[in-house]
Amino acid sequence: MKHIVVVGLGGVGGYFGFKINQFNETANQFTISFIARDQTYNIVKTNGLTLLSPEHPNSITKPNHLLQSVSEINDPDLVLICVKEYDLENVCKQLKQVITDKTILLPMMNGADIYDRIRKIIPDNTILPACVYVASHIREKGIVEHKGKAGKLIFGKDPANPFTDIDWIIGLMKNSQIDFDFKDNSFTDIWTKFIFVSSFGLVTAKYNSSIGTVCADEIQKLEATEIMKEVKLIADKKGINLPDDIIEKTFEKAMTFPPATPTSLQLDINVKKGNSELELFAGAIINYGKDLNIKTPFTEKIYSELMEIVENY
User: Fold this and answer.
1) pLDDT digits over 12-41, tens only?
2) Which of 113, 123, 179, 301 is most deeply packed, by most CB within 10 A?
3) What are the structural domains, with CATH classification, of the chain?
């Protein structure tokens, strides 16, 4: 029986992990372990994981195993990595100690450089590049709330290990009633999302504004556009095929959100949260720029302005 591990029970891990586990409670095809820390561990151990979602009338699920740390994982076949960006390296170093050469990693995280960062630490395993769209958050420890349309997973083959058998993972997603697209190459989707979340995240964080304001305010729109141009240059150099009208398309997409919609980076920076996605967005653009010899002055400027805000907490 294959062993599936979900690392992180936040908005993403809680939503997708719940769906997989609730399917498996009936089907009993897999062994499933959740990793949860501190208070979340105690609550899920006592009550199970709760997902408040119109998709699931039965809102509680209990995994086969609940573990408190990655070091307790035993012989995993698939690991869903659903942690915050700033925990990624630490989690990968711990995973390296417990995975086998057959373990497949599926990072359910948003960022253009996630695959590369995991590959640096875990060089030989199959890593399925992915991005997710889901409106879910931790309502309280052990309780995840999901609103709006069904969460979506887009994932693809590992370019370094294209012949790994992942049909069983595709079957798992289908059986768990997860809305997903599987592609031979998912990097175009990952970078299409990144060009949106990085530009809007950085500009809304700088001005403590909203997605609608960035579209409407000339100065903010210009700054977002310049960041998008830098991301597009990097994607082009990496051979990732973003359409020529990606910038217009990104603003069109932004206009479909309610105008007052915040971004997670804006919320993190302006509620003075210690950790944020600043490195995930600006750091990735700047680092790729250095690696590929592409100038990124607009991203560097906004990065230093946001670092100043963070340092003045």
Assistant:
1) 999 999 999 999 999 999 999 999 999 999
2) 113
3) 2-185 (3.40.50.720), 188-311 (1.10.1040.10)
